[in-house]
């Protein structure tokens, strides 16, 4: 028996048939915060390597928490290239489960996973097998050809049946089936083209994963769901009961999935153009490299196709458990929009009709698409900050466990000196032109503290929170008072060798450390180390670079005052999710630039590393994302960049005619200066920008953009495009110099 067969046999004994079947790759994402943190920190019992590396974590593993989080999960590496790919060995599509798990892997967006998550991807010696750069499949367990063939055959069979019938219901079904056949006919060549070029954009030759693969798999999942509806139609179409009981529901379901297939077809078509314009080299394409008429096509997809993904098909690309949660979240979003800034009687009346957005998916989809298109950043901030309301926080106390030490305090404003390096307190001033959002004493603060990241606070002060499972030596110097102890401390433990600095996410405009305590508290208990969470000031009241200044100042303060936090000063880890991951990366860049001690490792959860105005697969996937939609993300970026949010843009701003090329704006935060910011790309200097006059004049472009997305949105997009600030290395770490990135500590991407 070959090695691969032995490995497969061993794992087939360990994994039951039920566990080997899944309708979505996210069904296996069961790793909890305690397990994640336990495995995370156990890896740091060894000395962290100072070399820069990027580790991709397979969070789909379901092994016990005793395993090290970043140690090899198993030794079940199965080289998929050794499997037979002949038609005879192609997996048979199951009616009950569209995916066949033919290997023990659970990572579904790459053809193989590294045997250990601590190896250096650039190392010449790895235990991963050699892989041909032209994969036959995108997903380990998904057979595209079989799915598309079954979908076409079943659609043709049903279409032929309804063509012979004379009723209006049958005519409507026939029309939908023709649309499905036409969409699949157009999509299959696009999928094939993308598949032929996947390898140009993969993370590495060992880890075959990129956004184009995800788009292709999402289209395959939509086809599988459509195939399921067609099977129901095929079995129930004959007889009187079809018209009386089944036709209405099945037609609505089939219509929704038909729209999704059409929308996905548009995304795939645009993806093919992106592959061509990128010269098959980069995932993120500078907007100046894309003709303006093609860019307008992207905004048409954003404006007109996003509604298809918020109704009955909401969250189809995720696991079933996620779909249910996202459905209720969108219903809550639609209801909150109707009550936003309304009188209490009106809001109460609207709340009484809120269930309609659960019962009628089409209304929910239309409402949410309108919100994403037309709402301002204040609404986005207010909605996300609902989780920071006093009543929500009171309820979360019954969910999150208690810790011994929970102290919320402020640091500053004195400069910090470390090894002859002076770190000044935050100096970036607040924006005086922006309207205040929720100036809440309940945002970001502990139960007994009125200050927080969302509230007005003294200049040059930074809000932080200390969480610890035990009272440790030195903490009394803070000092720790009786009100800072949630549970009685029976004894004082020695100082910890490790400390974790956490920076929360929230699009730079919302949430706080308190909202993230649902996992910070379990981390503190499981890791048994102090955790310091930074409550940085939020945009738009405090735009870039205020948040970075506060996080960097907090980092320096932690290094300077290690003993006060019960830390020996040995190992410091930086952790951030979403916007927080962006901020801890910027802190690392600043530390390297000024010569301050680097963190021993940084862990970034779903972090945006490139905020500049560009085209990429992630921008396409955000169109159908019900949680972090494109419309929300634009507004968050504009608020963080300090772009003034006018209710109505000046008329001359959108109608002024310019024959010259788009020029970068010079009015935003030009005082930000660093070695990384002063870098220039020789290739960018030598290559002239695409001339808009070649296909479309700039004034014509903005006039059409205004017709597509509305004048307010067009004004915002224009300011984002003209601004150079989002490409600053502190805002887009991918723009940092290679010399800086080479000095990065071990970096984990989750």
TrEMBL record:
Pathway: Lipid metabolism; Glycerolipid metabolism; triacylglycerol degradation. One of its GO terms (cellular component) is caveola. It holds the Pfam family Abhydrolase_3. Its EC number is 3.1.1.23, 3.1.1.79. Residues 42-62, 81-116, 657-690 have a biased composition (Polar residues). Monomer and homodimer. Interacts with CAVIN1 in the adipocyte cytoplasm. Interacts with PLIN5. This is Hormone-sensitive lipase.
